[in-house]
Amino acid sequence: MVVGVLALQGSFNEHIAALRRVGVKxxxxxxxxxxxxxxxxxxPGGESTTMAKLAHYHNLFPALREFVRLGxxxxxxxxxxxxxxxKAVGQKEGGxxxxxxxxxxxxRNYFGSQLQSFExxxxxxxxxxxxxxxxxxxxxxxxxxxxxxxxxxxxxLAEYLTSSEKEGGQxxxxxxxxxxxxxxxxxxxxxxxTADSRWHSYFLKMAGEVxxxxxxxxxxxxxxxxxxxxxxxxxxxxLPIFE
Length: 243
Description:
25% of the residues lie in helices and 27% in strands. With 243 residues, it is of the alpha/beta class. The chain has a single domain (2-238), classed as 3-Layer(aba) Sandwich (Rossmann fold). The strands form three sheets. It has a seven-stranded mixed β-sheet with strand order 2-1-3-4-12-11-10. Residues 165-170 and 214-243 have low confidence and may be disordered.
């Protein structure tokens, strides 16, 4: 299995390194014709407005929309989640172009500016059920979006509890930060910046299910101890990662 990673801007190197840790090759995608070489795609985190301008410059939006329309698996993290949403609010003046496909409304900077970036322990029962391990995941939120509204076909995979609710105060709320709809996966946080590779494994198995057209198919994922990997230009990006 070869997974494409949109490499216009943002944390694409970190995603490629994370894929390598689970035994799968990731290749950088910058041109529309490169999408023909991959069966699934990751749209990484980064600066969504900049990514949209670069995607428009390279005439990538039509090819990305067709990739989604054909039912091929796509995972958007942070800015990538914004790209996949059918609607985004809180954008800069003039807005930005979206790929769409995910029936949800995303707030572009729900958690504030770069200074408000944080880490949080998220409850992820679906991830634990499919991939094992603890029922929590350490989410890294960097100038992160959030899902304000999700359609009936969208499955919520993780929510963030605001500080008010965690402290037992009034006015707290649950905010959706991870969703799946068919062939599309979206996370408001950055799994590629952690040592926990379960989200990447989940996406690969999801891709296998979509390709085979059955929920029973799986993808064989190698453990990091099984890999013998040569040094290349991406190896340095394996670290730092959060434990």
